[in-house]
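Action item from last meeting closed. Structure (420 res):
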C-alpha cells in the first residue's frame, strides 16, 4: 500500500501544504518550472507539466483547485485517470465537485472527497478534516483515511450534503461579517488598530480575523458563498438582520431592540444548554492579542456585527454549538466573542443602551450596513468578478499589516482550540 503514488492537481497554497505534509510522511506526490525548482531537493515530489501526467500515473488523486474551476479542470484531466484510481477534491463546496466527478470521471474510478477546514498557514494538527465516501469500497475509503492521517487532524465522516450544510452554517455568515467590517473600515479610511475605540477585548478579535480573511485568496470565500445554496440564504439573512437592528437603533426603539436581541440570545445560548458552561474566551485571552496599544478606558460599542450574527442564527434556527467538531478556527473565535457578549448580562445591557444613546459608532454602523447588503447582493447575483474586485480592493488597503495579523491570529487560534 505504501508504494501507491499520490497525485495533486492544483498547487496553490493548500495544494502545496498537502504536498509538503504527504511527502514528509513518506508518500510520493506528483506549475512546472517554478515548482520543479521549489521541490528540487525533495525526491518524493515529482512535478508534471500538466494534470494529464498526474492523472495517468497516480493511484490517489486530489484536485486542489478553486470551486468555481472544478468542473473545467476535471473535464480536462478526468478522462486520463488511471484505471482503479481513487479521486477526491479539496474544495469548500462539495455539490459542484461531486457533479464534476460524476460527469467526467470514468466509471471504474472511485470517489472519496476531503476538506481541511482551515487555511494553509494553520497547523492541521487537531483541526477538523472532513472525509466523504461518495463512490468507493470500504478498503479505498480506509486507504484515504490512512493517507491523510499524517496531518494529525480530527477526521469527521460526513455526506456531501451534510458537509455543505455545515460549512454554510459555520463559515458563510462568519466570512460575510468580517468582509463587511473590512469594507466599512476601508470606506471610512480607517486602520482600526490605530483608533483607541477598536483596541482591546472583543475589538481585538474583530481586527485580527478581518485581516486574516483579507490576507487569503478571494476565491476561498467566493466559491463557498456563491456555489453553496444554503450559504446564499444565510448571507442574505445576515444582511437583513444587520439592517433591521440598525433601523431600530436609528429610530431609538429601545424596548423593541432589547426584546429582539434577548430573544435571540435566549434561543442560541440558553436553550442550547450553555448556561453554567465556561466561556470559550476570557478577558485575559481577549486582551492578550492586540495590534495596537490597549487604552486604559474603553469606548462603549454597540457591536452591531455581533448582535446581527446571533439574530441571524436565531432567525435561521441554527444552533452553532451543534457543529463545533466540524468548524473552522475563525468560526470558533467568532462564536467565542458572541458568547462572551451574550452570556454577560451587564455587558449586553450596556451594548443595548449604547446602541440607542451613543452615536460614536453611527457612521461606522452605516457603512457596515451598506457593506453587508453589498456582499449579500454580490453573492445572490453569483457575480465572481464583482466579488473579486471588491475583495482585492480592500485587501490592498490592509496588506501592510497582514504578517503581524497572521502571527497574532495563529496564537489566538491555538488558545481557542485548547479550550474546545
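Sequence:
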Amino acid at each position: 500500500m505504501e508504494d501507491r503514488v499520490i497525485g495533486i492537481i492544483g498547487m496553490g497554497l493548500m495544494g502545496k501544504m498537502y504536498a509538503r505534509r504527504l511527502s514528509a510522511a513518506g508518500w510520493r506526490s506528483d506549475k512546472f518550472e517554478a515548482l520543479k525548482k521549489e521541490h528540487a531537493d525533495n525526491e518524493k515530489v515529482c512535478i508534471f507539466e500538466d494534470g494529464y501526467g498526474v492523472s495517468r500515473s497516480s493511484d490517489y488523486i486530489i484536485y486542489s483547485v478553486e470551486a468555481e474551476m472544478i468542473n473545467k479542470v476535471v473535464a480536462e484531466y478526468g478522462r486520463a485517470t488511471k484505471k482503479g484510481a481513487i479521486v477526491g477534491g479539496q474544495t469548500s463546496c462539495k455539490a459542484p465537485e461531486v457533479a464534476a466527478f460524476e460527469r467526467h470521471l470514468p466509471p471504474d474510478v472511485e470517489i472519496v472527497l476531503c476538506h481541511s477546514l482551515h487555511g494553509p498557514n494553520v497547523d492541521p494538527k487537531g483541526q477538523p478534516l472532513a472525509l466523504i465516501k461518495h463512490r468507493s469500497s470500504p478498503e479505498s475509503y480506509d486507504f484515504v483515511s490512512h493517507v491523510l492521517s499524517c496531518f494529525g487532524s480530527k477526521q469527521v465522516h460526513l455526506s456531501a450534503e451534510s458537509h455543505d450544510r455545515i460549512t454554510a452554517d459555520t463559515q458563510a455568515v462568519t466570512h460575510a461579517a468580517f468582509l463587511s467590517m473590512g469594507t466599512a473600515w476601508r470606506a471610512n479610511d480607517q486602520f482600526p488598530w490605530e483608533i483607541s475605540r477598536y483596541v482591546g477585548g472583543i475589538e481585538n478579535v474583530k481586527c485580527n480575523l478581518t485581516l486574516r480573511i483579507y490576507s487569503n485568496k478571494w476565491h476561498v470565500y467566493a466559491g463557498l458563498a456563491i456555489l453553496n445554496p444554503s450559504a446564499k440564504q444565510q448571507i442574505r439573512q445576515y444582511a437583513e438582520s444587520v439592517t433591521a437592528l440598525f433601523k431600530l437603533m436609528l429610530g431609538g426603539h429601545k424596548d423593541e431592540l432589547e426584546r429582539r436581541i434577548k430573544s435571540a440570545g435566549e434561543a442560541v445560548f440558553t436553550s442550547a444548554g450553555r448556561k453554567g458552561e465556561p466561556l470559550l474566551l476570557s478577558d485575559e485571552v481577549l486582551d492578550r492579542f492586540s495590534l495596537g496599544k490597549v487604552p486604559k478606558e474603553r469606548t462603549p460599542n454597540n457591536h452591531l456585527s455581533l448582535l446581527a450574527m446571533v439574530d441571524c442564527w436565531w432567525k435561521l434556527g441554527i444552533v452553532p454549538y451543534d457543529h463545533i467538531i466540524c468548524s473552522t478556527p475563525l468560526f470558533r473565535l467568532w462564536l467565542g466573542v458572541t458568547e462572551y457578549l451574550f452570556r454577560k448580562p451587564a455587558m449586553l445591557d450596556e451594548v443595548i443602551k449604547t446602541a440607542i444613546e451613543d452615536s460614536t459608532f453611527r457612521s461606522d454602523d452605516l457603512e457596515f450596513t451598506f457593506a453587508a447588503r453589498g456582499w449579500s447582493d454580490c453573492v445572490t447575483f453569483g457575480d465572481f468578478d464583482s466579488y473579486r474586485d471588491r475583495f482585492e480592493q480592500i485587501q490592498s488597503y490592509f496588506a501592510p499589516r497582514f504578517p503581524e495579523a497572521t502571527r497574532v491570529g495563529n496564537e489566538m487560534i491555538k488558545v481557542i482550540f485548547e479550550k474546545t
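Note appended to the action item: The chain is about 60% helix and 10% strand.
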